[in-house]
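Input chain follows. Return structure tokens only.
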Amino acid sequence: MAGGGVTHRAACSCGDLTVTVQGAPNFQAVCSCTDCQERTGSAFGMSVYYDHAQVLEKTGNPTRYRRVSNRDRALDFMFCPICGVTVWWEAEFFPQGIGIAGILLGPGFEFEPKFAVWAQSLPDFAHYTNPALPVYSKGSSDGPPTRADGGPP
């Protein structure tokens, strides 16, 4: 069990698939890669990562979809077989925990991304408004941020 702190519950649209976590996340990020855009139907995905020790409960029977990133790293997405919403995923780049779709953590959760990745795939109509947010054209391991002033990459 996690070492205390606030608990948050993420759930799919129909409520059949849930994950409950406790404490502060390991990190939070925004991703605009085309895979996240396809997964969310939006210009970006909001990702919140927790260590396995912080996961208190998972309910439901997810369907697993595996994709391989452009860096040849596997990501296993757990989505609801009833409503189709992806609730959490396991990523090869974060073996110590899981990623959760940040928007699903509800109104009591404060999403505060530490960085944004794959800005080169961000649609022209969308941009980041936080001038302090480090924005990477590709992944965060590709060198320093291309922009940290909230403007387009």
